[in-house]
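Protocol step 4 of 6: structure prediction from sequence.
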Amino acid sequence: VQLVESGGGLVQPGGSLRLSCAASGFTFSSLTVAWFRQAPGKEREFVAAFRRYNSNAYYADSVKGRFTFSRDSAENTGYLQMNSLKPEDTAVYYCAAGNGILSTLQRVSAYTYWGQGTQVTVSS
């Protein structure tokens, strides 16, 4: 199993970015796949997730209404569209996969596989 993130960069407050998570070694919908982020000096925190074999996306309250997690089955890739970005969204964003269930979606420990991360910086 391999997860490769891309799409990070520097953006001004109010701007948008789209992150990609290219998956290999498994079918995207067969595992629970999530985005987490980690800012300097802070713990890794949950952003969004798709449960395995489920079409509903779940979001942290801090990004609800601004971020959209989607997946392309043909490309076996997930996308995190981030709009109305704020300086507090600055972090390294990670894609993760595992056998998590609804009650464990937001736990780092529920995920077995992790990508290398991509830096998102929101600054003027």
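Step 5 (inspection) to follow. The chain has a mean pLDDT of 95.
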